[in-house]
Design brief:
The protein is an alpha+beta fold. It has 3 domains: 111 residues, Alpha-Beta Plaits, CATH 3.30.70; 87 residues, Chitinase A, domain 3 (Roll); 179 residues, Trigger factor, C-terminal domain (Trigger factor, domain 2, Orthogonal Bundle), CATH 1.10.3120.10. 48% of the residues lie in helices and 18% in strands. The strands form 3 sheets. Strands 6, 7, 8, 9 and 10 form a 5-stranded antiparallel sheet that branches. Strands 1-2-4-3 form a 4-stranded antiparallel sheet. The protein has a two-stranded parallel sheet with strand order 5-11. A hairpin with a 2-residue loop joins strand 9 and strand 10. Helix 7 crosses helix 10 and helix 10 crosses helix 13. The protein is elongated, with a radius of gyration of 34 Å.
């Protein structure tokens, strides 16, 4: 096979492909063997019809050649893609230019390929992660949760503050519906919990027992209701004094200091894990911002959207749920779901293009040895021979795709080592913390 690629406008490539006699003879033999299993010729068993008899039976060599071309065209195209190392992202427009009964067979194919984008600013990226540091307030709040199990509720006659327990009578009337109002007496509410409706926690602060509160809020499903609350009693939690004796009697620790140290260590490990878990996605999203949305081809975004929709349907079926039920549970319309999936798909395409651009910008193209090493790892994980996988990649035109995946892995590692990670306050995070294994407790 001889394949030549030529660049066209709008990220399109033209392939001119020529197959020699030996390759066409192989395709003809394969087509003849396939047809022999399908047609019935008097005096011969299926699959045992001689080639010359079969050719005469189906109408001549021209018919067999046409069938061979039809059957083998996907393989011819895939091999041409592999040989020219192009990266198609759509279906090709194929035009047979020479299909005589004998001699070489030629065809042309035009196809859209993945755009090559350039990026700048990758070395200046600042990626925000959850802070791995534990504040004194966070430690104190966690210790108070332990103490709250032994707290005493005490009546107070002062303005309400966050954390107070307020006993109230509450009435909820849905607006614009005939639904009977919901009424509850002596409902106890923890201020700051956000369990009634949005806005309550802000408006109730500063009020006192004996006062009333009224506001409109959502009850779900796009329905708005009027909430009326009569505040009857306010209590605060009086926490026990944190002493060694209390710690010994109510916890697994022998002293207040030991309790604090254990809580600090556990919270630190948890927060470091949270930062580590968000690290990869956060840096890829930051990198994607270096690529404009309009660069992402619609064909790629559409394909990615459809794949995500298919994956969602598969996950729902495993949970014995259909798409209609999912939309009802999540209070979405089909259009809203599709818009969300497409937004995620666009982000994924931009990440892919940005990683490929980073490979070029930082000279991260994998060596043949690195590709072979990754291919062997992939083959081992698939429980197949590496040579079989290598041949399959070539025959299906996925060599370029596999090589690109290896390159993107190198680009991802480069990001991990070179971007600046900061917490929400803009303070740089120690990179070594993000590399530390938190699977085993330490005293660090």
């Amino acid at each position: 096979m001889r394949a030549i690629s030529t660049s066209l406008d709008n990220n399109r490539i033209k392939l001119v492909v020529e197959l020699d006699d030996a390759e066409m003879d192989e395709a003809l033999d394969a087509a003849a063997a396939s047809l022999a299993k399908q047609v019935s010729v008097k005096g011969f068993r299926k699959g045992k019809v001689p080639k010359n008899v079969l050719v005469a039976h189906i109408g001549g060599l021209e018919v067999l050649r046409a069938e061979a071309i039809r059957e083998s065209m996907p393989d011819f195209y895939a091999r041409a893609v592999a040989d020219t190392l192009i990266d198609p992202i759509g279906q090709p427009d194929i035009n047979v230019t020479s299909a005589e009964e004998e001699g070489p067979f030629t065809f042309e194919a035009e196809v859209e390929v993945r755009p090559v984008v350039t990026i700048t600013g990758q070395r200046d990226l600042r990626v925000t992660l959850p802070s791995p540091n534990v504040s004194d307030d966070e430690v104190e709040a966690q210790m108070n949760r332990y103490r709250e199990t032994d707290a005493i509720l005490k009546d107070v006659d002062r303005p309400i503050v966050t954390g107070d327990l307020v006993t109230m009578d509450i009435r909820v009337q849905q607006i614009g519906t005939d639904v009977e109002p919901l009424e509850m007496s002596d409902f106890m509410y923890t201020v700051g919990s956000g369990t009634i409706t949005e806005g309550v926690d802000e408006l109730i602060l500063g009020l006192k027992a004996g006062e009333e509160l009224k506001l409109n809020g959502n009850v779900g499903g796009g329905v708005v209701a009027t909430y009326e609350m009569k505040l009857k009693q306010v209590k605060e939690r009086e926490l026990p004094e944190l002493t060694d004796e209390w710690a010994q009697e109510n916890t697994d620790w022998t002293s207040a200091e030991e309790m604090r140290d254990a809580i600090v260590n556990q919270m630190r490990r948890t927060k470091i894990v949270e930062a580590q878990m968000s690290q990869r996605d956060a840096m890829l999203v930051a990198l994607a911002e270096l690529v404009n949305e309009d660069v992402a081809p619609d064909v790629l975004v559409d394909a990615e959207t459809n794949e995500r929709l298919h994956d969602l349907g598969h996950r729902l079926s495993q949970q014995n749920m259909n798409l209609e039920s999912f939309l009802q549970v999540t209070n979405q319309t089909p259009e809203q779901l599709l818009a969300t999936l497409r937004e995620d798909a666009l982000r994924g395409v931009r990440i892919d293009l940005a990683l490929r651009a980073l490979v070029v910008a930082e000279n991260l193209e994998p060596t043949p040895e690195e590709i072979d090493e990754e291919l062997e790892k992939t083959a081992e994980s698939m429980d197949v021979d590496a040579e079989i996988l290598r041949t399959n990649l070539r025959d299906t035109g996925r060599v370029t795709t596999f090589n690109a995946e290896v390159a993107k892995m190198k680009a991802s590692r480069w990001l991990t080592d070179n971007v600046t990670f900061i917490d929400p306050e803009g303070i740089e995070i120690d990179r070594e913390l993000l590399r530390a294994d938190q699977s085993v407790e330490s005293n660090a």
